[in-house]
Amino acid sequence: MTNIDFKTRLQQWLPKLVLSPSLVLVLVFVYGFIAFSVYLSFTDSRLLPSYGLVGWENYSKLWRLSHWKTSLTNMGIFALLYIGICTFIGLGLAIFLDQKIRAEGVLRTIYLYPMALSFIVTGTAWKWFLDPGIGLENVMQGWGWTSFEFDWIKDRNYAIYTVVLAAVWQTSGFVMAMFLAGLRGIDNEILKAAQMDGASNWNLYRRIIIPQLRPAFLSAFVILSHLAIKTFDLVIALTGGGPGRATELPATFMYSYTFSRNQMGIGAASATIMLMTIAAIMIPYLYAELREEK
Amino acid sequence: MGFLDIDNTTKSYGSLEVLHKVDISIEEGEFLVLVGPSGCGKSTLLNMIAGLEEITSGEIRIKDSVMNGVHPSRRNIAMVFQSYALYPNMTVGKNITFGLEMHGTPKAEREKAMKDVAGLLQIEPLLDRKPGALSGGQRQRVAMGRALVRNPDVFLFDEPLSNLDAKLRVDMRTEIKKLHQKLGTTIVYVTHDQIEAMTLSTRIAVMNGGYVQQLGTPQEIYDNPANLFVATFMGSPAMNVVPATVAVEHDKPVACVTLHDGSMVSLQLSQENLSAWDGKQIMLGIRPENITDEDGADRNSANVVKLTNRIIVTEPAGSDTFVTTSLGGKDVIARMRSDADVQPGKDFQFAVNMDKAVVFDPETQTRITSE
Amino acid sequence: MVAATQDTAIRTGRSVRTLIYLVLLLFGLFYLLPLYVMLVNSVKPLNEITGGGMMNLPQAFTLEPWAKAWSSAQIGIDPTGLSPYFWNSIKMVVPAVVISTILGALNGYVLTKWRFRYDKILFGLMLFACFIPFQIVLIPMARMLGLMGIAGSTSGLALVHIVYGLGFTTLYFRNYYAVFPTELVKAAQIDGAGFFQIFWRILLPSSGPIAVVSIIWQFTNIWNDFLFGASFADANSQPMTVALNNLVQASHGVKEYNVHFAGAILAALPTLLVYVVAGRYFVRGLMAGSVKG
Question: Stretch B7-30: mean pLDDT, rounded?
C-alpha cells in the first residue's frame, strides 16, 4: 500500500522537481540579480557595492550627465534608423525573393550569414572597411575618384551612422527571413481572388499582402528594438564609443561608468533604465502572445 | 457555339499530360458540375476557365471570344474559392466592392451594387465586420456576394461547400440552387460530392484521370452510365456490380448469376441485341433501390424478376432498411421499405427490377449499348 | 507575360524581373563585401595592405598572417596567438550548450505535458529572462562568481551561459512539444510508463530536429558572446571574441591588419561553418524565437 502511494505521489511531484533547478537558476540569477542591481542603483556604490541608500541621487546625477544624454540621443537616432532601414530592406528583399527567383536558396544563404557572426567580427570588418586610410575612401581614390570622401567613422557628427550601417548589415537578413515566412504563410487562394478582382501588383501588395504581414511587422519591431537597446559589442569593436563620445550608447555608458569610472551606483541606474525600456516593449508583447495560446 | 466552349483542351505540366482533350459546350444559364475523385483534373479545368492556369492546347471561349491568354480579371468571370479567400484585413463591405474598385467603378455605383447583393444574400448586418468574426456559412455567403456583385458572364465555384458541416452543407446547397433559379446565371461548379452534382446541375461532367468519362444530364448519368466508373461513382449507396454470364434463350437474353447458396438463377435482361454476347461474361449493374421486396417493387416496370436469396446483414436506417445479400459471389445491397420483414440468416423473396439494370463489358468497362 | 503557376499567383513583367534580379544581386554583393575584404587581405603581406588597394587580389599570396594569428600574435602578456583562446571558447561552449539543451528539453516537457497551475506564468518568467539587457546582471554575477570560487574561469563562463541560455532552449522545446498530442502521454501512463520513461522513450526520440536547432542556436550565441567574456574572464580564460578584440585594439607597434583579418575569420569560422552546414536549422531557430504560431 505504501509503495503505491509513494510512487504516485512521486510521479506527481516529479515534474515540478525537474523544473525547479531551472526555475531556481532563473529566479536567482535573473530576477534576484535584477533586484540586486536595482537596489544598487539606490546606493552610494562606487568601486564596489556598498549598501548605503541614497534615494534617487544616482538617477538625478545620471540625467545631469552629458555623457548619458549623448548616449540617449545616439540611442534614439540609432534605433530609429536601425529599425526603419532593417524593416524596409527586409521587407523589400523578402518581396523580391518571393517572386520565384531562380537562385533563391543561394541568395537567402548570403543574406543571412552575417547573423552567424559575432558583433565583434562584424565591427572589426566594418571598422577597416570604413577607415579612410585603408578602406573605402582609399579604394575609391585609388580607382581614380580622387575627390571621394568617406570618413564618417572618424567624424563626430556622422560616426553613429556607421554603427547603423554595420548593424543593418548584420541583421537585415534576419528581418528578410521573417517577412519571407510571413509572405509564404498567406493563403494562395486570396492571391488568386485578388487577381480575378483585377488588382494590379502594386494594389495587391499595398491593399492585401502587406496588411496581412502585421504580425511579422510587430515581431520585427520587438526583436529589433530589444537588439538595439542591447547594442554593445558592435560599438566596442567598431568605434570604441568614439570619436570622443560620438557613438556612446547606454550599454557602453553603463560598462564604462561601472568598471572604468568606478561609479557603480550610476552604472546600475543606467542599467535599470535600459531594463525598464525593454520591459515596456517586451512585457505587453509576451503577455499578448502567451494569452492567445490555449 | 455555346455560351461557354471548352474546345479540345489539354493541359500538360512538362511532359506529363493531366487533362486529355476535354470537349464541353454549355449554353447560357446552365449549371455545369465537374465531379470526380481527387486528382481527376476538375480543379485544373476550372482554373483554366478562370485563367489562373495556362491552356496547353485547345481553346476556351466565352460568348465566342477566345479566352486563351486573357488575364482573369478581363474575362468577366467570378470565382468562389474553397477556402472563400476573403481579404482578412478588409470589412465584408470592402471585400465585396474590391473587385469593382479595381475595375474603376465609381463609388456610388459600388455602394449600390453592394447593397443589392447584400440584400439578396441576407448579409446586410455583416457589412462592417471583418471575415475573422464570421461563421463558416456567413463567410460562404460573403464569398458568393463578392462574385455576384461583378455581374459576370460565368460563375465558377471551386468546392465551396467542402469546409462546411453536414447540415450547413445541405442548407447552402438549396440556397445555391435557389439563387441559380432566380438569377439564371451560367455556373461551372467543381465538387467531389456526387449528391451535390446530382441535385444542383443541369448537366454533369464526370471526370477521372484527366478524362471526361461522361457528359450528360443527371438522369442520363444515373440511368445510363457510360462506364463502370461513372456507374459506381454516382449514386449512394453505390450501384451493385456482379459478374454474370449471358445466355440467349428463345431469342431473349438472360443473365445467369449465382445466388448465396451457389445455385444459378436466370435474370431476364431488358436490353436487345445481345446475341453477340451469348455465352460470354459481362458485368451486371443493379442499383440498390431496384432490389426490393415484392410489394415495394416498381409497378410500372415491365421486367421484375423474383428470386429467393439469403439475407446476410440488415441495416435499418429509419426511412429504409438496407439489406446485404449475395449475387455472383459478391456482396450486394438491396433497399427495402423500413417495415419489410427481414431477418439476417433467413431466406427472403426479393424482387429485382431488371428494366433498370445495366450491362458492362468486363474488359473495356464500358456499358454495352444496343448499337 | 509570365503565366501563373500553382505556387504563386503573382505575375511580373520582363523589365520588372530584370530590375528585381539586379537589386537582389546588388544586395548579395553588399553582404559579401566585408567577408571578401577580410579574406583577401588576410593573405597579403603587410606592405600590400598599407600600400592601398583593399579590394585587390593579393599580389603575393601568403599564409603567414594566419599562422601568426593562430600561434604567435601578441594578445596577452605572451605572444601566443589566438589558439589558447580558441580552446577557452570550446571549454566554455561545449558544457554550456549540452547542459542548457538538456535542461531546456526537460523544461519543455514539463511545461507542456504536465500542466499545472501557474505554468504559463512560470514560462513567461523564463521567457522574459531571454530579453533582459545583460548589463543589469553584470555586477551581482561578478560577485556571485567570486563567492562560488569560479570567478575568471571557463567554468564560471559556462555557468553564466547556461543560466542565460535556459530561456531560449526552454522556448524551443516547449513550442516543439506543444504540438505533440497529450494523448500520447496519457496512453503511456495507462501502459504504466513513468515520468522519465515517457520522456526517454516517447518524446526524446522524436526531438532530433529541435535539439539540432537548440544546439546550433546556443552554440552560435555563446561562441559569439562578448559582454560576458569581457566582464567575467581573466587573462587566461578569455574566450575567442575577447581575445580578438584585444588583438585588434592593441595600440602598440604597427597595426598588422592582415593578422587582424586572419584572426577575425578564425573567430568567425566555427559559427560560419555551422551555418553553412546546418543553415536550415539555424533559420528555424531564428524563426522559432520570433514569429510564434
Answer: 92
| pLDDT at res. B196 | 92
CATH assignment of the domain containing B324? 2.40.50.140
Least confident of A12-16, A169-173, C165-169: A12-16
- Whether B37 maps to a domain, the answer reads yes
Pairing of strands B211-216, B240-249: unpaired
**Residue B293 lies in domain:** 240-360
Asked whether residue B186 is domain-assigned, the answer is: yes
- pLDDT, mean of residues C108-114: 87
Contact A118 C225 (CB under 8 A): yes
Q: Are residues C102 and C240 in the same domain?
A: yes
What is the per-residue pLDDT for C6?
36
Q: Is the peptide bond before A243 cis (omega within 30 degrees of 0)?
A: yes
Who's near A262: CB < 8 A, 6+ residues apart?
A46, A47
Q: Are residues C113 and C192 in the same domain?
A: yes
Asked if pLDDT for residue C251 goes beyond 70, the answer is: no
Interface partners of chain C (CB pairs < 8 Å, 3 or more) are A, B
Q: Which residues of A touch C28 (CB under 8 A)?
A: 107, 110-111
At C292 the pLDDT is 42
What domains appear along chain A, each with residue ranges and CATH number?
Answer: 62-292 (1.10.3720.10)
- A265: distance to nearest CA of chain C, Å? 10
Q: Does B78 touch chain A (CB under 8 A)?
A: yes
Distance from CA of A57 to the nearest CA of C (A): 19
User: Looking at residues B241-251, what average pLDDT do you find?
Assistant: 87
- C-alpha span between A163 and A228 (Å, rounded): 11
Whether residues C28 and C124 share a domain: the answer is no
Query: Between chains, do A208 and B50 touch, taking CB under 8 Å as contact?
Result: no
C12 contact residues in A (CB cutoff 8 A)? 99, 201
In chain A, the residue whose alpha carbon lies closest to the alpha carbon of C218 is A116
pLDDT at C290: 56
Whether residues C161 and C221 share a domain: the answer is yes
| Element of type H or E holding C185 | helix C182-190
Burial of A108 (0-12, 13-18, 19+ CB in 10 A): buried
Same domain, C94 and C180: yes
- Rounded Cα distance between A196 and B300, Å, is 51
Q: What CATH number should be reported for the domain holding residue C101?
A: 1.10.3720.10
Q: Hunting for cell 505554468 — which residue is that?
A: C119
Among B51, B77, B81, beta carbon nearest to A189:
B81
User: What is the number of domains present in chain C?
Assistant: 2
Question: Nearest CA to A120 among A170, A51, A179?
Answer: A170
- Give the domain extent around C45: 14-71
- Number of structural domains in chain B: 2
C281-C284-C286 Cα angle (round to 5): 115
Percent of chain A with pLDDT over 90: 34
Same domain, residue pair C56 and C103: no
Residue of B nearest to A198 (CA): B73
Q: What CATH number does the domain containing B73 carry?
A: 3.40.50.300
Query: Which candidate, B306, B293, B296, places its Cα nearest to that of B354?
Result: B306
Site from B67, B87, B158 to mutate, A interface, most A CB atoms within 10 angstroms: B87
Inter-chain CB proximity B85 and A199 less than 8 Å = no
**C163 & C260 share domain:** yes
Round to whole Å and give the CA distance between B213 and A227: 62
pLDDT band of B117, cuts 50, 70, 90: very high
User: In Å, how far is B156's CA from the nearest CA of chain A?
Assistant: 11
| Chain C residues 66-85 with CB within 8 Å of chain A | none
Average pLDDT over residues B104-110: 91
ipTM: 0.85
| pLDDT for the residue numbered A131 | 83
Q: What is the pLDDT of residue C189?
A: 83
CA distance B53 to chain C (A): 6
Whether the pTM exceeds 0.90: the reply is: no
